[in-house]
Amino acid sequence: MADERILLSHGAGGLKTRKLIREVFQKNLGNAYLQQELDAALIKFSTNKIALTTDSFVVSPIIFPGGDIGKLAVCGTVNDLAVMGAKPLYLTLGIIIEEGMPFEVLEKVVCSLGNTAREAGVQIVAGDTKVVEHGACDKIFINTSGIGFVPPNIDLRPSKMLPGDKIIVSGSVGNHGIAILAAREGLNFTPPLSSDCTYLNYLIDRVLNLSSGIKCMRDPTRGGLATTLNELAQQAGLGIKLYEEAVPIDPQVRRACSMLGLDPLYLANEGKVIIIVSAKDASRVLEEIRKFDIGKNANIIGEVTDAHPSKVVMETELGTLRVLRMLEGEPLPRIC
Amino acid sequence: MLGLKLSKEKLKPLLKEISIDRNIRIMEVCGTHTMAIAKSGIKQLLPPNFRLLSGPGCPVCVTAQEDIERILLLAEKPNVIITTFGDMLRVPGSNGSLQEKQAQGADIRIVYSPLDAVAIARHNREKEVVFIAVGFETTAPTVAVALETARKENLENFSIVCLHKLVIPVLRTLLEDQTTEIDGFLLPGHVSTIICTTPYEFIAEEFQKACVVSGFEAVDILESLWLISRQLKTGRFKVENQYQRGVKKEGNKVAMEAINRFFEPTGSLWRGIGEIENSGLKLRPEFSCFDAFLKFDLKDVQVKLAPSGCICGKILRGISKPEDCGLFGKVCTPLSPVGPCMVSSEGACAASFYYAGGDIIGR
């Protein structure tokens, strides 16, 4: 233990990341908020709740098809607030820049930060800039923290999940992870692979207004759909049954994944939300999501069950069953 | 041919025809097949007396521990950049893995093609760039192209650890081994695109075993198993080619020429199986300047191997299943692997671990 070192897989979003969070961060910083392991902390102020979250972005390359580190830094934090049912309001911005960075590139990133914030309806209200010597960071690292207001009637938690609830994903999975990998390694696919990086707060807001049957939501970033569903199953103490045929995957993502030996169910998404909703409201919610351009490929991909507690099991296209585990740590670093 | 989409309705009669009235053991030789079989859950569909065994077709898994240790020694040398396919990164040696060496400061880079390694050599002339060349007849031609590029550009700082293996000699070894009971082979589609189907003929003629060259979709594999069961039932054994969209009669002559230009067959050490005559490729003498182990004088370095309890050898020969290993899923997981079969995305143990079927949930 004493000579153990941090490996890249400690940041991959899977089991190793969780172990690191529990054994180093929770151990030293733990409190009731952190222990809930949610996307944003919900803090009670008199009768109102605010949501607070923070996220760092070290993606490489900093500009990629479908987005850049600036857009990602806004969307990532906005989405973490939105999936907790919060209306995202204010962001802080911490930037660490490597000396020698061309002004033009920085300007492009900051412009993208501004545009995305405006589109998402949030304001960046505080910031900090540091410049470090060449080699001390790679081009640019960003941290954003965000604060949002949770309407009094909204209470989203995995513990509200019940057997029979439906699982909706708002669109195709794996796009971000594979797009970053392709951009970084110079793998050219036709048509090109593009990240799904986007803010989800308007879509989520509409869904919450439509249905009181929403139990909880997650954005499946690092570790992908499979890992996020495992977290939900474990936190709810219930099983999740998934239907392979129903999971939307873009054909070009599927092809690239099969070439590279990757599984799209374990690749990061930056513009997708998983929604657990009562069976009664599921089709209505799905219909509403599909009205959004970013939700047009949404689908009901499975359901909550008490048959296999804390496990995610997928029925394959052949009708066989496959247990989906959490990501164990794979060599795909710096995707966000 | 069934086409690439198989409905559940079409599946039923096909499965009925696959069933046979005695115990059958079929080996899938290729790691990609192992993964596809695990992922699609094909084993759940087959009758209990129709068993599929993983074979020695995962490049990382068959790499001898001695060679792994030498690679790790190489990674510790100053001014060396190790370039490798990602699968190799977490393979454990007696003193850590490449991933751990990387965390300690070694320059180790994942590449997706040997040409990427050449590009790294081009941009880092002051460093020695070593590509870890593992793989079968499918990978060797791409390494030959990389060597040709490095030769043309006079990249004296580029070399390879040449650990290529050949499929045919290991199949013969398995067939001659009395302890392995194999009734037929699901033959590797990708390798066959290069070497064509002729070299497998001895399996049917000399050893009277069923064999079908198969594609990699679940449907391909099911159709190939159906063809195999037909051979078993009629007792007429021959190499059938299910993967006609990939494998041409004459193979890939250009690729074979590229292999033969740079490499020649040599005895090779297989993890858990041992030395097999003419089962590997080494650089021809005129290209030995590209041999990293020669360059760094690691060829004859004696490495100490600690017994790990890993039963990879038995698994690679189809004698044991991953679940038979006492370490499987307990001491040995993808997070802390004991052997390469748990590391590689084509490894039998990783396939069983990641893609466990419904049996573990007690349906």
Task: Give a concise summary.
Chain A has 336 residues and is an alpha+beta fold.
Q: How would you explain this protein's 3D organization?
A:
The complex is a heterodimer of chains A (336) and B (363). Chain A has 336 residues and is α+β, with helices and mostly antiparallel strands. Chain A has two domains: 38-150, 60s Ribosomal Protein L30, Chain: A (2-Layer Sandwich); 158-324, Alpha-Beta Complex (Phosphoribosyl-aminoimidazole Synthetase, Chain A, domain 2). Chain A has helices spanning 15-29, 32-35, 69-82, 103-120, 175-185, 201-210, 224-236, 251-260, 279-290; strands spanning 41-45, 48-57, 63-64, 67-68, 87-98, 123-132, 140-150, 166-169, 214-218, 239-243, 274-277, 299-305, 312-315, 321-324. In chain A, the strands form three sheets. A seven-stranded mixed β-sheet of chain A has the order 9-11-8-12-10-13-14. A five-stranded mixed β-sheet of chain A has the order 1-2-7-5-6, with helices on one face. By secondary structure, chain B is of the alpha/beta class. Chain B has a single domain, classed as HypD, alpha/beta domain 2 (Rossmann fold, 3-Layer(aba) Sandwich), CATH 3.40.50.11740. Helices cover 37% and strands 17% of the residues of chain B. Chain B has a five-stranded parallel β-sheet. Chain B has a four-stranded parallel β-sheet with strand order 4-3-5-6, sandwiched between helices. Chain B has a two-stranded antiparallel ribbon with strand order 10-11. The two termini of chain B are 33 Å apart. At the A-B interface, strand 14 of A face helix 2, helix 3 and helix 6 of B.
